[in-house]
Structures are given as structure tokens and as C-alpha cells.
């Protein structure tokens, strides 16, 4: 079994000496001008322990110190070198384009929390026995209008926060109100030399919106900007773990 860390180009370049999971040496499986970076593991299911997730992250960050890297999400295990080559062959065009897009760039993450969690958008209360049908429908319509107005207000605020950060990035992803309190979750792909400017912009936003909790993390490998979905990709599980990203 091979644990899969990343995709790199220029496979003839020497890798840094790294030990991966289970203290196995990190190696590469070349295919044309790309390579899968892997290490041997004894199981097809790697436990999502904090130590394992951090080790995965350490390997990827060491790789990206002097080369373009496409990180693979935690937990991807392949059966053999042939399987690794098959993955690279299948996604070769996407990997090549993605490497060109992320070269010299890093990912920054931002989360914005509202300090006062709004009331949940629960359905209207059952109709009271004494209420007329018209009164009940009017109450439901008012509730829906209130929820819609609150959502639109939150989306407008998220856009105001996102806009100056997006101007510093070459590509972004964002999600608004993934929970009632989590106003904005966003990732930004930016040139390495713009990291300081990005952090300064986040600090300015945090100072201007003191009622919000603005959390900036990174720089990270560009996990959010890899277009191919690989076998065993645990995108949702990894996002929930928040061990390496927050």
C-alpha cells in the first residue's frame, strides 16, 4: 500500500529526505513529467489522528518549500505504484494546469464568526387553534421575510469583507453562513510575496468590524485549488477535522 501526499512536476529533481507515516521514507512514482509523492503504509485505512494529519501536512509543506505542489487530501491510499501512475495518467491534464496555476502561490484561509448567533431558521410554530387561516399565513409570510432579510444582510456583509481580500488573490473560494454563526469561510490563492499584505488587510477588517471574530490562517499548500478529485478523497472529513487548517 502507498500513502499519497502530493503531485509534483520535474520528477528528476531530488526530494528532501522525509519520513512519512509509519516512519517510512517518502519517495516518488514518476509519470511523464509529473510524479506522485508517496510512502509505504501497512493499511488501506489511515486513522485520522491529529499526529497523522500533522505529519501529512509537514511532508507537503516541506515539498512546497522549493517547488510547485498539488497537495492530496489526508487519507488517500493506493494499492501500488501502478495504481499511482494510473491516477496521474487519468488526471494528467488537470494536474499540469493546476501546477501552472499554483506555482509560486500559497493558500490563505479566513473565517468570520458573528458574536451574537441569530435564532435558528426553524419552521413556524403550529397554527394556534384560535388563529384564522389568514392570520396564520400572514405570520408565516412575515417570518419568511424576516429570515430572508437576515440572510441578505449577512450575504452583503460577507461580500464587503471578502472583496478587499479577493483583490489580493488570483483565485478564491467562499461559503456564506455554513452555520448560523459562521458568517464567512473563504480560501484565497495568492502570490507568496502578497502574504504580508493579505494579513495586514485582515487586521484592518478585524479592527473595522470589532463585533466579528476574524480568523486568518496560513500560508498553506493550495488544497482548495486542486481541481481533480482523487480516489478516497476525504474532502468533507478533512474539512471537519480542522486539524491542519485552523
- Tell me the name of the CATH class of the largest domain: Alpha Beta
Detail the poorly predicted runs: 119-124, 234-246
Average pLDDT reading:
85
CATH topology heading of the largest domain: Alpha-Beta Plaits
SS-based class: alpha+beta
- Number of DSSP strand runs: 9
Which helices and strands appear, and what pairs or packs with what?
Elements: E1 2-9, E2 27-31, E3 34-40, H1 50-63, E4 69-71, E5 77-78, H2 81-90, H3 92-102, E6 105-114, H4 133-166, E7 171-176, E8 182-191, H5 195-208, E9 212-220, H6 235-241
Antiparallel strand pairs: 1-3, 1-4, 1-5, 2-3, 6-8, 6-9, 7-8
Please summarize what this structure is.
By secondary structure, the chain is α+β, with helices and mostly antiparallel strands.
Task: Name its key features.
246 residues; alpha+beta; Alpha-Beta Plaits; 5-stranded antiparallel beta sheet; 4-stranded antiparallel beta sheet; 6 helices; 37% helix; disordered C terminus
Characterization of the model:
The chain has 246 residues and is an alpha+beta fold. It has 2 domains: 2-91; 106-220, Alpha-Beta Plaits. The chain has 6 helices and 9 strands. Strand 7 (171-176) and strand 8 (182-191) form a beta hairpin. Mean pLDDT is 85; it is low at 119-124 and 234-246.
